[in-house]
């Protein structure tokens, strides 16, 4: 009897132990904050969400969140670093290695676009939706490749041949697993620009100007694609294309050219009325007090209120830019000329150090400090592109018309053909570009695409200086034997 | 099939239990020789049989013995075994001697196991509860610092109740976790800190004074029973248990002060102005147009809102304000606790309750804790015992600006106060803050009055914890027990970070509240079958088999709200702008079977084999299960040789080899994922976040060890020496991919590390004369840590001396609401982990005052741009550490001094870098650095000339490279303890007092180090020592009364 009981007890104990035995289903735990990558692009809603994922990259502070607007101003002759936080000082002194660094984020955006482009043909979404998404992906890919080329390569008409290593690697297929990872070499400059042109042509073909789901200017439109294509044509010296595309862009109805009376208010509106393509920033996408555009450019919280310090005001206009703007400062008194654009510059606070005349284009226009939408292309640029293209094509009169559209809108007198001709006309077009787009990230590239030296304090930078091109991240060079570093690094 | 086998087993068992002729009864009382107290639970066994009884709660026993000359064997934990011939006696009273030999100590080994130390074949260090008693620390991990060889403890910061890092035998993982597994009374605690507002430690729930002992399982043989959680070692904590008998109460109270270790010596206003104007002048010489001396002075003055035309005498009259003095304050510490222990033969209980209040040495940072725990053991029958324990705890801590990791350190008082320009007042004449946000803040880069920020902001975390466990111990037959148990470890964290609308950071948004609610539910159940038997008096066999299931789920909500009507409104409902909200979920499940087999021959040769088979949801579909085996053996040499030696009492040689796993590799590392949150224009977005790797598996540690345990000179010298070789394989690394693929990396099992080292422990009784005793305890650990393999395919272009370098994210042991928190660190093949890799600073050119560096070929350069210029310059890994204690006792008086040391750790003094800028920006500077600056051609110094902006033209920044690299080695007089037990002669008249003790302690009394910052003991979880609250010096005084 005793023996029987013991045996039973042991059997119960043991079987309890063993029947609990491992079942694999117990170990299936799925993440709840993410979905399986393999099926992430299956539904139309998912494609739409994935498209937002591409725009999302562009918002980063290493792309349009700050760097693509602020760093080119610091590298060129528009911006002077105040050393109030120490940021942008190395860039403004053109220290080796201090440059734009949009390589990594750009390729992340490109891959996200590529993955969508690959999934589109088999999607069950309506054709119109598919076209809209495809057009936007092509636009965004073209934009990002163009930004890479601006930073890491020479422009086709201004090459230092002995230092030219080419364009950037072109990746056109999406990567979502290890087998698709490649180790690409740099394409030539011409190959890259051919691809950019092809993407933008595709975007122009697929996009419309009145999509109600993807509204301009926050999403890419046909007009935006034409405008970007015009800019690419201008930068690469395809003058006739630039002229044609700028005409198309102006005719598209995307972006409204502002009058003199509207000009200042346009820069205080949440969304700039001139924007042909503008990146939207929502309250939870605030870049913050360290590297937002507002904190980079001004100490002010609100225009005209010197009592309250918000940002650092790390980068302020250089003396030569202030001269071009017609601004003089004596003590705390700032005087301006007729140019309405000078009203976008005012004396900052002493909260972070001595007061400076600061740019207030980005001043928390979305009603929150450090939160500004970023205009990527404004329609004013189309007029100056057309002026420059016409100048290069020998149409001086047409060039002057567009130049004067900008000048008179600013409150300046219209220039006459006798006053401005030949090189002087081109110089004035370039000077108006400098003033109109100051602190919007154009100046460095305007000089670079024309092969011009940078004249600045404390020292000038020759066009032939290797510093003009950015360093490809060294980790990428170590990983990819086919990838060649830029000259000098 | 099993049935048959176990029938046989049972038959065998029953054969031992055959009936004996019962002819007489022996009875008596067993007492302790030391204090005469009755000893309950002493095993009284008839020698050569398995028949025996245990003594009752009053120490009495009664046993029937057969006729003839019978020997009784008395044995009890912590006492020497005694054999007594019964003879004709019917009463045998016995006084047992406490066990002097450490080799006979009882050691807890996990899953209910406890072994006599002589039987142990693995590597286990033990810290007794009384060694760490009354230390003014908040968790036991801090208390074991320096107490055990091979165990390195580093407080992340000086915040009371803040995070702690424990590393057992080096660093065995690169991107995975390095934290040991903590098992408290059988409950596997989730020790991943998830407080994002204040620094907190999940082990705070346990009052260290409730601890009976802490066992640290270090090698594979000891730890592999815990399988895939064991690679970083296992810390087993056993809390105090109730004893049958009259209920005994113990009241304990201590109080004391907390003071800063040191303040930094920085410039006064006049020196600062001089430095800053030199900086402008030096820059002006090359800029266009150049500054005159007067212009430079004016620029220096106006930069901090002083009049630009101050005369020399006006400058000399300017006041200097000591900001550090306002930030660093003496705090108080108070601890009160009461415990009760008692019960009957059938039921015993232990209850304790405690309250702790401790401030940091920096204003408005403190810690409060209330704890209560109740453990009950009840015998349901002779065969079944029910055990349960529940511990509840609530903790409230105030933290500092910048969060627990010290990220936004600029607003943190400990970081900022030495850096604020000394001419800036702290308060106005009326006592209100100077430089409010409305007034544009204070001059300088540090634009906020950090004293105001510290006092007005409310940064608070509340952690509530409940840990409960129950188990049954069913003695199925003699030697065979079955022990099922279940436990829950439950933790909630509520955090609020309210940035006051009067402070600069929130002035423009009318106040900001960041909040967090996080809960962790960790459920564990297991069942263990245990068998112990000695055959023919020489073959000792024990076997263990078990099954276990664990599920751990972490969930949380968090958000940010701005726009509060006034500073009086601090809760989310009062805000107007909802900036972000979020919710997170993470979890894992593990299912395991495990077994252990032990055999000893004549109690002198020992052999043990362990294996665990673990399945975990964290791993790839192709590698869901893993096996972790270990074998070990021991030989008690003194049983064979040296038996009659006067010198050697006991000598044991042991060796082990085995495999353990590390599953702290994130929650879903193997899956290809697309995550949400990539929103645009208020529309939700998704994007790929990681590529899949279905082959992913655990990290493996293969550990071999040889150890010698010794007891010499009549047990006056005891200790052990170990050599271990811990090879970490299949380490998870983010194998870098070219970013042109859209992914920067994929997780793969590719890395390898090794930790080889020695551990040395020695305890000597130097003097023992009458009532006087002097005991010394010393431990030393040396670890040779090397990265032996990183990913393939990285070209040495980046580092031309063929150092293979990887910058990898390292798991900090902390998590936030959505995932683990990692930190970038460097790894170089052939070097220790956490390599410091930078350009070498070469000092100052005596002719120009410009900083110089060595390039790749050791040439002096002003600037560097070739990746080859970067070199390995040291590691943050400390290869040597340990502790040293001297204890003197005379009767009831005991004095002990405990030193703790760490040698060989190099680290950047990040705060020191700011403090050495010498006028680059609007920061203050260390006086020592200022005085050593270059001033005139020919000056030989290591401090460059002041230069506004910090980088000379075409020169690297003057704080670059190794300039702020420092040796963080230190020796610290960690604890001095004086206690006095009132003699019984005094207490006896006061009838109800059983014992009374008064004691004093000093913590962190003295530190010897070359480190120039506040404190060399910190863990850089965010940005080095930036924003880290330093440790404090504590003095406490306490009384303990038992009644």
Secondary structure: elements and pairs:
The complex is a heterodimer of chains A (489) and B (1043).
Chain A: H1 2-19, E1 34-36, H2 44-58, H3 67-75, E2 79-81, H4 89-92, H5 103-119, H6 127-152, H7 189-206, H8 222-235, H9 239-251, H10 260-266, E3 275-279, H11 293-297, E4 315-317, H12 319-325, E5 328-330, E6 333-335, E7 345-347, E8 357-359, E9 374-378, H13 379-392, H14 396-410, H15 423-436, H16 443-449, H17 474-479
Antiparallel strand pairs in A: 2-4, 3-9, 5-6, 7-8
Chain B: H1 2-16, E1 24-32, E2 43-46, E3 52-54, E4 60-65, E5 71-75, E6 82-85, E7 94-96, E8 106-110, E9 113-116, E10 124-128, H2 140-143, E11 151-155, E12 164-168, E13 181-184, E14 187-189, E15 211-217, H3 220-223, E16 234-239, E17 245-260, H4 269-286, H5 293-302, H6 312-316, H7 323-327, E18 331-343, E19 347-359, E20 366-379, E21 384-398, H8 413-416, H9 450-456, E22 458-477, E23 480-499, H10 504-507, E24 512-535, E25 539-562, E26 577-601, E27 605-616, E28 625-636, H11 637-640, E29 648-662, E30 673-676, E31 686-690, E32 699-712, E33 717-736, E34 745-769, E35 772-789, E36 805-815, E37 820-828, E38 835-844, E39 851-854, E40 860-861, E41 870-875, E42 880-890, E43 893-903, E44 906-908, H12 910-915, H13 927-931, E45 965-967, E46 970-981, H14 984-987, E47 995-1009, E48 1032-1042
Parallel strand pairs in B: 1-7, 13-16
Antiparallel strand pairs in B: 1-4, 2-3, 2-5, 5-6, 8-9, 10-15, 11-12, 13-14, 15-16, 17-18, 17-48, 18-19, 19-20, 20-21, 21-22, 22-23, 23-24, 24-25, 25-26, 26-27, 27-28, 28-29, 29-32, 30-31, 32-33, 33-34, 34-35, 35-42, 36-37, 38-39, 38-41, 39-40, 42-43, 43-46, 44-45, 46-47, 47-48
